[in-house]
Amino acid sequence: xxxxIVVAPMGEIDFYQINKLASQLSAIFGSSVDILQGMRLxxxxxxxxxxxxxxxxxxxxxxxxxSNDRExxxxxxxxxxxxxxxxxIIGEADRLGSVALISLxxxxxxxxxxxxxxxxxxxxxxxxxxxxxxxxxxxxxCHNPKCVMFRASGVLELDxxxxxxxxxxxxxxxW
Length: 175
Ligand SMILES: [Zn+2]
Known about the structure:
Number of domains: 1
Radius of gyration: 15 Å
Number of strands: 9
Largest sheet: 5 strands, mixed
Bound molecules: zinc ion
Distance between the termini: 12 Å
CATH superfamily: Collagenase (Catalytic Domain)
Structural class: alpha/beta
Shape: globular
Mean pLDDT: 93
Helix content: 25-40%
């Protein structure tokens, strides 16, 4: 039995998308998925100067929520994230702590492909979430451009990304 996945929406997040994501992650990883409710953004992670939230500080907060070592926590927030090395962050993960974080801030920008914006944003969130959770389960970036684990450096590359694992990555996940 795999460790449980816990999705932690932080701040004001569209619950329809969170519920949909949780059930898709459950099917893909064969894990049960819980959704935490009512999580507030940690104020101490906010930088007045940058107008952004320090991603690593939020990851540390999420780690405290774990009820056991096998649990994986995926935080999702609307606000813009930074680390000291980058002010352009879509997601960050800490495999040792089994926690990951995704910001919708950049996922809600740059619509060149057309299509309904909510659907485009959800699809980006879905692929990023699969990458982050797979990373917590031990996978790394994949060299196969047709694999969801292929490295995407921005939202437009994320749009081009496959939503499936290649055979190799599937095997690593242990199916
Ligand atoms: Zn792969």
